[in-house]
Amino acid sequence: MKNQSAARQRSPFTKAMLAIVGIALFLGFMTLGTWQVQRRAWKLDLIERVDQRVHSAPVAAPDQSLWPKINAATYEYLPVQAQGVWLDRQSVLTKALTEDGAGFWMMTPLQRADGSQILVNRGFTPEKMRASWLKQISEAGPSTQTVTVIGLMRMSETGGGFLRKNDAANGQWFSRDVAAIAQAQGLNNAAPYFIDLGVPASNPAFTQSQQSPMFDGVLKSGMTVIQFPNSHLVYALTWYGLAAMVLGAAWLVRKHDKASAGR
Fold first, then answer.
1. 191 and 106 share a domain?
2. What is the pLDDT of residue 97?
3. Which backbone phi and psi does 122 adopt, to 5 degrees?
4. Is 245 in contact with 165 (CB distance < 8 Å)?
5. Which segments within 143-207 are labelled E, that is strand?
6. Bridge-partner residues for 124, per DSSP?
7. Integer Cα distance of 134 and 140 in angstroms
8. What distance in Å separates the CA atoms of residue 209 and residue 194, rounded to the nearest whole number?
9. Residues 83 and 204 reside in one and the same domain
10. Contact 239, 29 (CB under 8 A)
């Protein structure tokens, strides 16, 4: 019996390896849990800043001198206004999935007096209108009327959609990739961001942000979804829970070794 008990006891090397693995797992899970707590604090601060930002009065859209400094943390969803002339014939339709169903965003360049262009999301149109819009775009004449655009700054959406890449050659756009659209449409000085036409109803510039429809069609603007996923607390609890399980497993192993040694 004593020989069998001794056989059941772990060697010093095995105990050391188990201790090292256990400590590594515990520290790793605790680090990940703490990181998620910090991420949650950062996300809550971001949500608060964006909420304050979207209700502020529009400022002038960043000009070329500021383009290198533009980032999502500071500029995403910032209400801005810009003046220029629509380049209707260089509009593109990009795939959209909204609360109104599937369809397209109408992205039209706004030519500014300084020679730069800003892509503007003029609104949503359902899928059944695609052929009609493409016809109207191809037949559009040059515009000379200066308009004022008020909306929310957005960052470029590079690459394409889920498992679908943008196909400029065939006019298939699955994301609002500013650089790619600008290149395809021959825009030689396009801003690295685009503007979603319209601001929330609570913004003081809401009334002024409403635009008349392009051509004879109907475009629904002001559909920007401002939403930040915030599951960091769940992730933190998961990692801390795994760390607690490591401690529990270590206690069980220790208890088993003591029982084996006492036999």
1. yes
2. 87
3. -80, -10
4. no
5. 146-155, 160-161, 164-165, 190-197
6. 105, 220
7. 10
8. 16
9. yes
10. yes
β-pair partners for 167: 172
Same domain? For 140 and 187 the reply is yes
Residue range of the domain that includes 238:
2-45+230-261
Q: Does residue 144 sit in helix, strand or coil?
A: coil
CA distance 89 to 109: 9
Q: Which two structure tokens, joined as six digits, stand for 57? A: 């009065």
From the list 225, 228, 224, 200, the residue with the least C-alpha distance to 57 is 200
* pTM score, whole prediction: 0.71
Regarding whether 91 and 175 lie in a shared domain, the answer is yes
Q: Please say whether the dihedral angle defined by the alpha carbons of residues 145, 131, 125 and 228, taken in this order, is positive or negative.
A: negative
- Same domain for 108 and 204: yes
DSSP H/E element including 74 = helix 72-75
Q: Which amino acid makes up residue 244?
A: A
What residues does 105 pair with on adjacent strands?
Answer: 94, 124
pLDDT digits (tens, 9 = 90+) for 204-224: 776 766 665 554 457 887 777
Question: What is the amino acid identity at position 216?
Answer: D
Asked if residue 198 is part of any domain, the answer here is yes
